[in-house]
Amino acid sequence: MILKVWAPAAKSVELVTAQQRHAMQSAPDGYWQIDAPDAELASGYRYSVDGGPPAPDPRSAWQPDGVHGASFVLAPFRDPGRFEVKDLQHAVIYELHVGTFTPAGTYTAAREKLQHLAQLGVTHVELMPLASFPGKRGWGYDGVDLFAPFAHYGTPQELVGFIDDCHARGIAVILDVVYNHFGPDGNYLGLFAPYLTDRYKTGWGAAVNYDGAGSDGVRSFVIDNARMWLRDYGFDGLRLDAVHAIFSFDAVHLLEELALAVRQLSHTTGRRLLLIAESDLNDPRLIRSVTRGGYGLDAQWVDDFHHAIHRFFTQESDGYYADFKGMADIATALRDGYVYQGQYSTHRGRRHGRRPVGILPQQFIVSTQNHDQIGNRAQGERLSMMLQPWQLKAVAALLLLSPFVPMLFQGEEWGALTPFLYFTDHENAELGQTVAAGRAQEFSSFGWKGEVPNPQSAETFGRSRLNWNELQETAHADLFEWHRRLIALRGAKPSAVSKAAVKFNEAEQWLRFAHQGVLVVLNFAAQTRRVPLPAGRWELVLRSDEAQARSSDDMPPNSTFVFRAL
Amino acid sequence: MILKVWAPAAKSVELVTAQQRHAMQSAPDGYWQIDAPDAELASGYRYSVDGGPPAPDPRSAWQPDGVHGASFVLAPFRDPGRFEVKDLQHAVIYELHVGTFTPAGTYTAAREKLQHLAQLGVTHVELMPLASFPGKRGWGYDGVDLFAPFAHYGTPQELVGFIDDCHARGIAVILDVVYNHFGPDGNYLGLFAPYLTDRYKTGWGAAVNYDGAGSDGVRSFVIDNARMWLRDYGFDGLRLDAVHAIFSFDAVHLLEELALAVRQLSHTTGRRLLLIAESDLNDPRLIRSVTRGGYGLDAQWVDDFHHAIHRFFTQESDGYYADFKGMADIATALRDGYVYQGQYSTHRGRRHGRRPVGILPQQFIVSTQNHDQIGNRAQGERLSMMLQPWQLKAVAALLLLSPFVPMLFQGEEWGALTPFLYFTDHENAELGQTVAAGRAQEFSSFGWKGEVPNPQSAETFGRSRLNWNELQETAHADLFEWHRRLIALRGAKPSAVSKAAVKFNEAEQWLRFAHQGVLVVLNFAAQTRRVPLPAGRWELVLRSDEAQARSSDDMPPNSTFVFRAL
């Protein structure tokens, strides 16, 4: 089998197997290659650059023994076939962490829960990162072997089985990929080529070299990686982690080049393939077409939507929540996605964002909970651990009937009471201690007085597992049913693209919004309220309470009504 | 008079005059202000932040005693009036360093040479930076008092007089401004506010904080600076130094905000105001309209044009010249401006640039010599010190009859034989030695074995002054006349926008290009050549030699012919 590795500055590269060392031949563009004996590869291989310590292949397909172990090649993949991905306009995304989604924490165990997701009405599952990272557990954002799925979740074939099963149930699968930095532990990339740069900084380590000398090879590395997940594994899209930390200050931004490559793959395969950016920039350039000066991604996350709702319901005002207040910001979020469109942000100490002109609602992915918003709290609390049941229902209606693409975080649909904590398993003990101490220090600097669970502890991981038994309880089952019915209503909306019409009265404590024939009315007051409806005839189709009111003339305290236009 | 200063983190700010200290009042957005007694201000003032050492005003209008001296306010400026700036399509820019343009090195002395420039046909003079920098001489790229013109060139009133005189002769005036870094010496900005950041690096010092906390104030600082030069002094445009080192990773790039502010000033005043970027990115985004995702600047420098021509004529191949070769690159430069449109650059070690789609020729400023290309050589040699007279004429024809906007460097029009060396006058002796040693070291690392003149030495500056007596000599006067006639031919081109039609034969050593009815034919061979003309009837209107040929049927060795379409 032909093996290739990029090591442009190397004077020699050897393939190292359990049996022997083989000198590799220099190939164009700084690559080295060899026709390796298949029998030897079967027990794993490494590369030695200039006689240095043997290291895993940067493009290793499989690291069964972890990020410090030998690399393995895989048998050819099946053709993923043509799967009809639903348009984002009709999508409901479900963010899923394989390790905590089920007690076993594997792809195979996750397959058994697909019936639950299908019943809920989920159209897209989004897997948190799979690129191999150190240890036996973690969120996955410190991946180092970008081409090798994390071995503790199952084999590559089991991952393929999970994806095929999702497809069989009409569910698309998106993968979270991290192209803004590589993890600190198990990172051998520097031995091979100029993957990293010190020209820019990220909060998580050295930035990736996308615009300096040698960056063509680095770009090929991540673009080939994106292609592999989509083409070989059959993923239907990628969620690009924190693109504001992808520094690509040249005439063609990495994201534009990536979007072009994925568009070409889409043409070749006839499959719809999605690119979704997590972005902190409130910059529509990411999702504008290239002809309009954009990068041509399909959609982006909008955190402002989350922050406006979180601030209103929890009344928390620290950190970025300081920038949000009251119903006016929820109304702006429902209308425009971005709350910050160029105005001054106290949290950032500068003006932030720009108007999302010419953007379609289905280009904005919104959530009211996700791995970061839950897991970056000291205690990893979900909204279900902070809010009343009526508030959870109101939040769900805001999320699931907004004009944007809603994303749920695993367990949100039944108000799971298990936390989602930050957990790691760094094999380097010193690094593990540094991470744990750094996290405690960080929260203490914010004035947090309580306990901060140790990320390295197995218990912290264990507590973060979903408890599916909760679904047997009436309150949880009721909340699941609420989510299911909202999603069904969302699915029945016609396809026309429009903005939400929002009206609210802060003094009277109500807010309503209408979008494509569906009207949501929220009474936040502790008493019965008459909330005026928009002109037209409206049929009440869903209500959060058990009382008998038939219209908004007397909405019970703390209630949410959903109407459909007649 | 009301004085204001931005010091957002200060607990107190005092106005310090020769007479006394006055506490200033806190004003919105982190500013401090005072109604200062005019009589005291007449002898200069400084500010003390939190009781610290008194420092010059970051927005000082005048630093007659240098960057470490007291700040002064100025009397109101005259209205610059409405001056009809020529369209860039018909422009010829002339880059001018006030300190070396004349023996006296002042604005007043420069006025006496305006007749020479008018006679040459110059439409725009571009002054190298005037923002106050340390010492008595320098290129000006280490400015620290952005609002105070360098005192050794003359008073602000004398600068105004120079600009008014240019306008009276129909010449517009552009100023080179440096917004990518501030100089190291005399830099008191850090005492006042977060002007700088360590998030990014430039080759010349800390990067400017355009996207972090407090960046709104920094943006106001530079945008107000741009407004001042244009509105108060009456400059017709700005040349923005090295915009590839302006790091502004947010939804609205500083350059877009600056362009908007200048467009608004243009509307208000009814004057045409230009923004020209020096850029190393080959990225048309800079000069695209905002509706097409651009920053909306008017034009940008194109270094590839220079490099392709320089490489061909000098055969130098070190540094970035390694990326260029032969007539093919000159032909691409003549057609598209950018030679690098996405292909691999050996010098950069990566792909570079993108296609300049939708860009007009008048958006590209080209030169075959400029302060950097001359002055960044160890010996500061001009092409006139490296090439034959026939080559200088060929270069001038390529430059002045190209479809783009040509820029000459002072003295280029007569083949001046004075070098333009790198010179400084850092008052900080240690910094001066570091600069001198650094420069010697830099050239030595490139393998340069010769002498590197000491930048700090007054002689280095003195040798860089133009010697106007050269114009009395026939060879120089002849070259001046050649430039004058090419410019006149350029001015006679019709206004239609089109690309150049270029054809060449490397083996036969000829190249020709036609643009809007003007045809340039270059015979690089040492023998007589028959160069085929394009279809049509062509009248020979200018020739570089004294021989009698009437057509290209027998072009003499090393000759340049210019034809006009009949």
Alpha-beta classification of chain A: alpha/beta
Order of strands in the sheet with the most strands of chain A? 7-8-11-14-15-16-19-20
Instruction: Estimate nothing, just give the exact number of structural domains of chain A.
Output: 3
Seen as an oligomer or otherwise, the chain set is: homodimer
The end-to-end span of chain A amounts to: 65 Å
- Which architecture of the largest domain in chain A does the CATH hierarchy give at level 2? Alpha-Beta Barrel
What is the general shape of chain A?
Answer: elongated
Number of helices of chain A: 14
The major β-sheet of chain A equals:
8 strands, parallel, barrel
Using the coordinates above, name the CATH class of the largest domain in chain A. Alpha Beta
Structural Rg of chain A: 24 Å
CATH superfamily of the largest domain in chain A: Glycosidases
CATH fold annotation of the largest domain in chain A: TIM Barrel
* Largest interface: pair, residues per side: A-B, 34 and 34 residues
